Structures
1.
Amino acid sequence: MGADTTVRHLLLRGDFRRLLTTRLLSQFGDGVFQASLAGTVLFNPQRAADPLDVAAGFAVLLLPYSVVGPFAGVWLDRWSRRQVLLRANLLRAALVAVVAATVLAGVSGVPLYALGLVVFSVTRFVLSALSAGLPHTADEPSLVSANALSTTLGAVATVAGGGVAVGLSRLGVTGDAVYAAVALSAALPYLAASLVVAGFGPGYLGPDDGPDAAGPDRLTARAVVRGMAEGARHARARPPVAAALLAISAHRLCYGVLTLVTLLLFRTGFPDVGGLVPGGLVGLGQAVAAGAAGTVLAAAVTPAAVRRVGRRRWTAGVLAVGGVLQLALGLPFTPPSTVAAAFVLGLVAQGVKICVDTTLQESLDDDLRGRVFSVYDTLVNVSYVTALVAAALLLPPDGRSVAALAVVAGGYLLTAALYAHLTRSHADLP
């Protein structure tokens, strides 16, 4: 079946369209909220942040989710995922209103980061539920295309939400007031997402054994640890899953380093002297847009590439080629080459994610899928924040570091080789 036929088949399914719409609305709201928070912390003339502040902010926002995440995974295997998506989006709508009030009041530092932490924790909960519920809206032969379409359009929706937020921030007064108003506007798509997902029946998105299938016992810390251990054993017993988790974790380490390198280059490393790709915020926006374009291209080519060469070869190949190109495009340290590197990074990130998500969805038992996806999310967050903090401590202020790019390139090449080695007995991965 051709790629177009597969996509048409998916879009003919009302349940897939409903879940996709839920994702798009939810991630559009994420883009609005994330841009408002970034504007508040990084580009608000009433506030200022250096690279260590940025890394610390990411750590405060994401690392604690490594503690919250395991509970989310167990809940996703106990509760109706439809109810989780409905209530989580309603909760986020309420929380962003609190964040908006906090920004308007001029609060900064740990209190603001703590509120952001709560919103981002719920966001990861929503994304895990969307991924865990996707196999209930697509048949197995279409899962690669379903992941390509939904995650890529979701990423585009996030970028679009960020773009709308930037546009809104330029319509009113500067400073805290405008960013508070932008943050509050994120509540609208969250409320709309809740309304759309309410169209599913309570048990439609799983778990397969029905809500509360794991029993009515209270969700204690011991029960969570036990559940996570079960999920980890379930993943470890399946070499393709274990290799996929290794690949995405290593990629996120490299991604974290490259994120801070790009941010520092456009903040201080490139003079804002105009041109096709200027320095400063405009150039950084072009890099983000280039990354989104790479994401779209990955969604377009990955399903066909997987059918042609197999998921194993495609994943290893994308990692290896990505490592070489990051070094080649990054070393000139010019705005155009950095934007080109961002395009490649977007392609690598989405190409790997599509394959990893599909591997987990196909290879895991449904009643443990939520727990493994929470392990997945925790690994992604810890890897990303670890790389950000290390880069903030080691990179020069302008981000120009040949050593950092060499380490990233070597990391990608080593990961490609390890992934190919660990999956060598599964060379028939579809």
2.
Amino acid sequence: MIRYRLIFFIVFSFIVFALPSSCQEVRAGDFQTNTIPSLMDSIQFSGEIQFCEIKIPHEILGIRQRLEKEVLLAVHNRPQVILWMKRSARYFSIIEKILKQENLPLDLKYVPVVESALRPHSASSKGAIGYWQFLKDTGKRYGLRIDDTIDERRNIFKSTLAACSYLKKLNAEFDSYLLALAAYNMGEFGLNTQIETQENRDFFSLYLPLETQQYVFKIIAVKMILEQPEKYGFFLKETDLYPAFRFSKINFNSNAQIPIVMIAKAALIPFKTIKDMNPEIRGYHLDSGKITLLIPDGKEKGFKERFSKLLSASSKKYTTKFHVVQPGESLTRIAQQHEMTLVSLLRLNNFSFKKVIHPGDRLLIR
């Protein structure tokens, strides 16, 4: 009897999972169902496909195959596409505004979707970080601050401006946004080498590294899916999307390091909210000088008064001193010597647990 039940279960499961995806349904509302198209339906390209006003000649077999592959891979990963849609509702208005003011095609907003899935802390094995996946040297070359306390590759505004400058430069050099994107992925030197070797400047007929070919076609595929999500079986309501990024700015000057927790208290928000809205901040303190931070709308009211009181109380409570590191001393030993916890010493100096100190270094102590 058990054997027959097992056989029935196996046969039933096979029938259910063997059904074509065109027969599956997803609920999009209280009284409506929407059919998920089959994977084959999703690659029935019709009409003209463009990217940055460049026609994609999908009627050519080799080009069609590459585009089909990226569309199929993207559509198959349904959770990822849903996250793209939800995050794009949060960030696209910011990116589009900057692209417009820089006179760049709006289609370039799909680049950070492929680069980072619109996640500020995304990092590659090669050291690229942030929404647009800048390497450290490239980011600095285009004006981003990257040091132990701030990494502006994680700032949606500044990293997008830097990416605009870089893409402008690449487009001016290669006279094609598709080639500019190829260079963005593989580097200008690598692309120039291939162009000179093959004596060809047409992206579609250049023999490029597979990663770069896939990269450009994936950006095109993402555009196709996010512009017409229902065509590919994604039926999200406006309430399903993440709300647009709304914020207020606070500006102030400081002649000393400021603990982020003090700013959070003055804004009446958790420490985590400061870090989430300002992902470029590293550590637990802000350097002295001019400071600009984003906080939730409305939280700027009364901030300066509360911050001044907290700063004044902190100044009265603590007197900042310095400890000059001696040969053979460790952070643990210095903390014990001054009756501090190691965590307090690290936070006060904005150090990580991996920090290496050297004789002669000056450490803040309480």
